[in-house]
């Protein structure tokens, strides 16, 4: 581990921000600026397509002779983070691109609808529609994995719940980076990690959370799967988080529910790193190591 790397990132994320609630436009612009500094691997190519009825960025290994001979049959359906209010396939490209570069699989990064313009359950409707479109195109569910970060990490779980309820076959695996899995915000880490988390605050999460909920009761599985979901029949899951996260207990509690349901689950916790630390690939050693573990998990479970 590099204490210097972790300290530098922590200091950067703690830079002063405007006091009080920010507008949606300010939140979105600030997040784009932050994620613009993340490193995207060179060995990929991208183009925009439509999946379901939403745009999606198709990310593939670069089109050269080596890539064509080593490319593997598998599809990652990626859901970006951003509290259901901000973010895009572009802001998550350091994560999606590295998963593609490290596995040889292709990925679709979905541009699902955002709140407050499109509150719950719009995002889940879009992710389920995208998954259905992959199945309708002839994709074998055993060759599909869901992956995502933060709110998108939560969508990997809730989309599986929605797919199961719709009678669809489930994907082969789930990879969730720092997933948000509890809209009730009742995890102990919401308090015990408040001073350690350099990025998230309870107030900020309440601000964006209210936009997504739009009055909906958070006490339901599609909003708080960490405490309410029945995970029976779920595919193997890899949950990665850091000890300096406000929502760390979202992952620990979901892992416990998975075990109770007889689901294979790996709870992968890294010390002294922030929310979605995997984004800092090429900057933080722990980020590269975590993405290597995620890539290995995917290659082991996609057939």
Describe the structure using short key phrases:
single chain; 303 residues; alpha/beta; Rossmann fold; eight-stranded mixed beta sheet; 11 helices; globular
Give a structural overview.
The chain has a single domain (3-12, 22-301), classed as 3-Layer(aba) Sandwich (Rossmann fold). 40% of the residues lie in helices and 16% in strands. It has helices spanning 3-13, 24-35, 65-70, 93-103, 122-136, 151-165, 189-192, 202-213, 225-228, 248-260, 285-301, and strands at 44-51, 54-61, 75-79, 106-110, 144-149, 173-177, 237-242, 265-270. Helix 6 (151-165) links the parallel strand 5 (144-149) and strand 6. The chain is globular and about 50 Å long. The two termini are 33 Å apart.
Topology at a glance:
Blueprint: H1 3-13, H2 24-35, E1 44-51, E2 54-61, H3 65-70, E3 75-79, H4 93-103, E4 106-110, H5 122-136, E5 144-149, H6 151-165, E6 173-177, H7 189-192, H8 202-213, H9 225-228, E7 237-242, H10 248-260, E8 265-270, H11 285-301
Parallel strand pairs: 3-4, 3-5, 5-6, 6-7, 7-8
Antiparallel strand pairs: 1-2, 2-4
